Each structure stands twice: as C-alpha cells, then as structure tokens.
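Researcher: I'd like a candidate sequence for this fold, 431 residues long. If you have to choose between options at a position, lean toward the conservative one.
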C-alpha cells in the first residue's frame, strides 16, 4: 500500500507542477469523479458481497467454482460494455447540467477526457473482479497495482510538450487502466489455478444469493456514491477553481487514508469471512471491535499531527512549477477541515468488514443511506457559508455518523438468519 500510494503522490506532484490550480485540473477532477462514480460504486458492491462467496467456494468442488468464475467474468464484460455506451451517450448532458459552473474551456476539455474515462468503466469492473478473486485467497498484490494508472499518468505528464493541455491526462489514464486490468487478470488466473474464459449465463448455484445481496447493497452504495458528484457540483457552483482546490485536498487525504487504514480494511474481510464461515462469529466480532478502537486511536494521533503540519505537507507535495504559495494556502486551509474524518474513517473500516462478513447487507444499506443524507444536508448548509472548507467538513461529519452507526450495530449480535447462515457455512467447511 505504501509503495502504491507513493506513485500516487508523485503523480500529484507532476500534475501540480504542470497545471497548478487551473481549468485543466478542474476538467480532469470533474471528469474523473463523475465518470467513475457508477463503475466504482458497482465494484464496491461486488467486493463486499463477492469476497465471502468466493471464500466459501474454496471449500466446494473445482468444477462448480470454475463454472461460476466463467459466468462471473462474462457478466462483468456485458455490464461493462453497457456502462461504456451509457457514459459516452450521456456525457454532453452531464457536462451541461452538472458542470454548468465550470468555465467553457474546462467543459470542452471534459468532453475530450471522456474518451479515456468511458472505456475505463469497463476496465474498472474487470479490475475489481480480479482484485476480489485475489483477496479471496488473501493475496493483496492488487493493492500495489492500484498505482499503475497513477504511474502511467505521471510518465505521460512528465514527457508531454510544454503546451500540452488535457492530452497527457487522457492517454495516461487510458493506458494505465488497461495495463492494470490485464496484469490483475493474469494474476487472478494463477491464484485460482484455472483458465477462466468468459461465458454468458447465470446457471451457477452461487448466483441467487449473490444477486440478492448485491441488490440490497446497491441501494446503500449508490446513495454513498453520490457523495463525489455532490462535492463536484457544490464546488463547481462556488467558482474560482474550487474544483481544483477540492481535488488537491481530497487526494492528499486519500494518500493518508490509503497508506495504513485501507490496507487493514482490505485484509480484514477475507479473514473475518473465514472466521464466520467456521461458525465462530463471536470471535470475529471481538477481533473487529478491538481493531476498530485501536484504529480510532491511531487516526486521532495522525489527524492531530497532520493539522499542525498541513501547510508544510501541501507545500512539499504540490508547491512547484505552476503551483504557487497562494495555492498552498488555499489547499492547506481546506485540508485541515477534512482531517477531522481520519479517526472515524480509520475506526469504521474494520466494522464495515465485520458486518459484510456476517452478510448483514440490509443494515449496511440503511446506514449508507443515512450517511448520504447527512453529507447532502451538510453540503447544502456548509458549502455556501464556508466554501471548499465546508465541503470538507461535511465529509468529516458524514464519517463520524458512519462510525457511530456501525459501532452500535457491531455491539449487537447478528439476527437468527445470519447466524444460521454462518452455521451452514461451518458445515460446508467441515464437509
């Protein structure tokens, strides 16, 4: 995770050096968030509901598992192709309505950038499926390979001509997603020790339970996925390159979140799913609660140190070339309000994996909808009053609400239905 995030940090340095806070970065930030929100949402849903299923199939016969994997990749290809067409057709309307606050130059560049981000929707879904297959085997090389798109953008931006506009960002994004997708697919094949060939159909026995769980989770995940577009819409209406400022601050925080917390969260789900599949749900809950409280403490320490060092950190990462000291002050001011989310984000990661391993998807969807309501309400109230700082504070309040809900849910034992499911998984494991 640390190596992967380092590549992302160098990419941010290169983009800041070349473009600073400008219309190009406004267009890139807007296009990346708005075009990615649906594919990333679907990958988030599939990761949560798919990994426990894949863990359980490890104890089933090889033929059944192989058939399911063939159908899974086939369904992903069809869904991804549909997403590419949908994004491409709808993008002029998206730019006209959601990006109305952007400058004409930024809107024009966004239309150019969609040539990379529309195909990236298909590649994102395939990458997510391959990553889930690897994580089901408790192999986390996908965490390192998440940096491939960032590394590709870094190379294209550094090698581009001085007068290049959005072109390096376009080609860097497209090539990076393609290389990452192919690489992870090959590694997933090796992990499963099977040659997976896409096949249409939903004949495998795993589909009914998987689709039911995914449909429940999709409700909450779609609600939470609107957080990014809402932020972009709020920032676009503020004007003054607010999208660029928000993007730099958000990506700085994402680097901090990803180095430690996200790695723990990714590692936890297959472990907790395996413990629950053996019927030891009380031990799974004990592990999750202990780690959650420990992560809260770690997040609090990091946030306090980061509040003090925010201007220095922004200057170190971004201040060079077109990114000046005034830009550093703007980004650091927004960053400080976003740092309040760290303890709650760190703490909630493990609890999310606990509820997912217990397959309490309906409760997770309900909490997600509630969190979205908190975020949307806070954006409407705080953004006009505080600007970009208000958008960042709204995110912090959303994660505080999320942690409270998940912690209270984790303290309660799962209902009888989930317990029966866990016992059933234990019997399958014994057989």
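Model: Candidate sequence:
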């Amino acid at each position: 995770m640390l190596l992967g995030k380092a590549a992302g940090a160098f990419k941010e340095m290169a983009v800041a050096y070349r473009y600073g806070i400008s219309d190009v970065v406004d267009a890139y930030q807007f296009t990346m968030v708005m075009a990615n929100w649906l594919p990333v949402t679907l990958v988030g849903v599939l990761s949560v509901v798919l990994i426990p299923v894949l863990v359980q199939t490890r104890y089933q016969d090889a033929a059944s598992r192989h058939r399911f994997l063939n159908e899974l990749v086939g369904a992903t290809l069809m869904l991804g192709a549909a997403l590419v067409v949908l994004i491409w057709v709808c993008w002029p309307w998206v730019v006209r309505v959601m990006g109305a606050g952007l400058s004409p130059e930024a809107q024009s560049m966004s239309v150019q950038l969609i040539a990379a981000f529309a195909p990236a929707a298909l590649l994102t879904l395939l990458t997510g499926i391959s990553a889930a297959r690897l994580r089901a085997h408790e192999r986390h090389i996908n965490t390192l390979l998440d940096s491939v798109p960032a590394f590709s953008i870094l190379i294209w931006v550094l090698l581009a001509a001085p007068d290049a506009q959005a072109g390096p960002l376009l080609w860097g994004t497209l090539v990076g997603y393609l290389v990452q997708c192919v690489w992870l697919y090959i590694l997933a094949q090796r992990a499963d020790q099977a040659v997976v060939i896409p096949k249409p159909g939903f004949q495998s026995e795993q589909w009914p339970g998987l689709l039911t769980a995914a449909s429940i989770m999709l409700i909450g995940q779609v609600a939470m996925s609107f957080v990014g577009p809402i932020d972009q819409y709020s920032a676009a209406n503020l004007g003054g390159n607010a999208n660029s400022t928000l993007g730099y601050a958000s990506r700085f925080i994402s680097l901090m979140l990803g180095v430690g917390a996200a790695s723990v969260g990714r590692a936890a789900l297959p472990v907790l799913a395996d413990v629950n599949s053996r019927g030891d749900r009380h031990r799974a809950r004990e592990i999750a609660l202990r780690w959650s409280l420990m992560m809260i403490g770690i997040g609090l320490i990091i946030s306090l140190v980061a509040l003090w060092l925010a201007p220095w950190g922004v200057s170190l990462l971004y201040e060079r070339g077109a990114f000046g000291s005034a830009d550093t002050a703007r980004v650091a001011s927004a960053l400080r309000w976003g740092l309040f989310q760290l303890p709650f984000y760190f703490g909630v990661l493990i609890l999310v994996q606990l509820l997912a391993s217990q397959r309490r998807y309906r409760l997770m969807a309900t909490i997600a909808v509630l969190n979205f309501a908190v975020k949307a309400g806070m954006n409407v109230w705080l953004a006009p009053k505080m600007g970009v700082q208000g958008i960042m504070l709204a995110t912090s309040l959303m994660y505080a609400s999320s942690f409270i809900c998940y912690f209270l849910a984790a303290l309660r034992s799962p209902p009888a239905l989930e317990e029966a499911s866990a016992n059933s998984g234990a019997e399958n494991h014994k057989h």
